[in-house]
Structure formats: C-alpha cells, structure tokens
Amino acid sequence: MASVIESATQLATDLVKAIDIQAPSLDRPFGLHLWPLFDTVWTRFAGYPAREMVFKYGETPIGTMREAGGLIIAYYLIIFGGREIMRPFKPFKLNGLFQIHNLMLTLISGSLLLLFLEHLIPEVWRNGLLHGICSIEGGWQPLVALYYLNYLTKFVELLDTVFLVVKKKPLTFLHCYHHGATALLCYTQLIGSTSVSWVPITLNLFVHVVMYWYYFQSARGIRVWWKQWITRLQIIQFVIDLGFVYFASYTYFTSTYWPWMPNAGSCAGEEYAAFSGMGILSSYLFLFISFYFSTYKKGGKTAANKAVTSGDISIDPKFTESVIDSVKANGAAKKNGSVRSRRA
C-alpha cells in the first residue's frame, strides 16, 4: 500500500513538473502543452516515451487477429448468451454505473481528440493535408500510441451492449454489428499503418464526446434539444471519412498498379486495410442514413418504433431505448385519454 501511495505521489510530482503553459500558438494551439503530460503518464506505466511506441504484431497486447477476433467473438457470445440468461429475471437499473461509463468515455474521447489535434494542426498547416494523410512521418509514426489507445477504447465501448442486455432492452442487428465491426476496423488500420486513419478517428472522437455526454445527461434525467444532431453528425462524419479514405486508396492503387492514371503519388498503408476501411465505413454510411430517415423523416415515432423492434436499423442502444420508451409512453397516455410528457 505504501508503495502505491509513493508511486502515485511521484506521478503527481512529475505531472506538475511537466506543466507547460504558453500563449496559444501554432505549436501550442491550446496554450497548455498536452503531450508532456500524456508522455509522463505513458512513460510511468509503459517504461518508455510515448513517441517510441511501435505496434508489434504478436507482442503488443491484443495485437494479433486471434486476440482481437477472440474478444469480438466473446462479445457476441456474452451478449446473446446473456440475453437468454436474463429472460427469467427482472431488468437491472445500474443507473449509477451507466453514468460513470458514459462520463468516462466522454473524458477519454475528449482527451485523445485534443492530443491528436495538438500534433495535427501544426503538421497539416506546415506540410499540407496530403502529407498528413499519406506520409508515415506526417500522420502515423508520431501518433501510434494514440492510435493504440483509441483501439483499446473500442473494447471498452462494447460494455454499451452489456448494459443493454442487463436492462433487457432489444438487441438489434445493427447495434451489434456496429460495435464489433468498429473494433475490427480499428485493428485492421492499426496493423495496416494507414496514415489517413487520423481523419476518421478524430471525427469519431468528436462525435463520441457529444454522444456520450448526451447519454450521461440522459441518464441523469436531463433532457437536451440537440439529440437529432448526434445522428446528423455521424452521417456527416462518414461522408467526410469516405472522401478521405477513397482518395487515399485511389492514389495508392493508381500509383502502384496504374501509374498512367492521374494520381497524387503513393499513400502509406496496407492494401487489406484500405479494403477494410472502404467496406466497413461504406456500410456505416448506408445504415446511419437509413436509421435517420426511418426515425426522423418517415412516419416519425411510429416508423421508428417499427424499425427498432424489427432490428433493422437501430444503431445504438440508447437511441433504441429512448425511442421505444417514448412511443410506449405516448401509447399509454392515449389509452388513458390524456397526453403525458416523458423525459428523454
């Protein structure tokens, strides 16, 4: 116990020493230099500086397809098996844990986003966007530690579905597909060293800050007006993602196999990672657009309830939960001859 306290005290001392606050500039866009703080914590636990992080297949934890795939398969076994186990039991509330889970993911997503931006803003400004998305030195090697931590958070986010199971809410196809496929997507990009990965990752982190903050507020019983914007932001995110990913893939393949075609030169990354990125992100865009129109544009809550209960288009359990609860509440109110409001 004494050693733990001593270690924590030393870490706190090192963090205070690493604080570097200057006027905001191109190299310090937030005034406070964030990387030394992150590097201090990383070095304390990893034993080496964060910029020296190298993802090694078979050595880095959860660094092989067997390990990543095994966890994804275990995820599906747990949620579908758990659904059957929960059938004779009453749903659990777990509201306190649910709030902690969402607040934690909000803070993690926000911290990673700021660390990415601190490097990318001066990098893109000085060397150009093409260098940032296609060069190992620009958008990959300095940020491997952040890519890896973002990858690990995808397994933490699988707990979203565990909460859904113990609350006895519907398990929709799309929610389960989205969570498992995202973990696989991040793994393929990590082992494929795709420099363009920072584009979908930073956009996703921004959306997750908004999304998990909404879930945290909703769990506290606070209603917000911008819920629709979560889905809109997700759709915008995937449109931008695909523009960058398709461009990076196009210029790689044309410069490699058909150099006579117009291209911007080679682009860092493995071919299987390019196909994985294009395929999974394209499916996300199609499914999120379907979700948006079915929920907000075609028939309102009636269409949303039908789509959710059929398991065709729902993406996230919290969206599913709020839609179903709202529809059920309105239906009950109509039967009683009055209209009652329900907090989202």
UniProtKB/TrEMBL annotation:
Pfam families documented for this protein: ELO
Domain of life from the UniProt record: Eukaryota
Main location group: membrane
Record GO biological process: fatty acid elongation, monounsaturated fatty acid; fatty acid elongation, polyunsaturated fatty acid; fatty acid elongation, saturated fatty acid; sphingolipid biosynthetic process; very long-chain fatty acid biosynthetic process
EC number: 2.3.1.-
Reactions listed under catalytic activity: a very-long-chain acyl-CoA + malonyl-CoA + H(+) = a very-long-chain 3-oxoacyl-CoA + CO2 + CoA; an acyl-CoA + malonyl-CoA + H(+) = a 3-oxoacyl-CoA + CO2 + CoA
Recorded GO CC terms: endoplasmic reticulum membrane
PANTHER family according to UniProt: ELONGATION OF FATTY ACIDS PROTEIN 1-RELATED (PTHR11157:SF134), FATTY ACID ACYL TRANSFERASE-RELATED (PTHR11157)
Family (UniProt): Belongs to the ELO family.
Name used for this protein in its record: Elongation of fatty acids protein
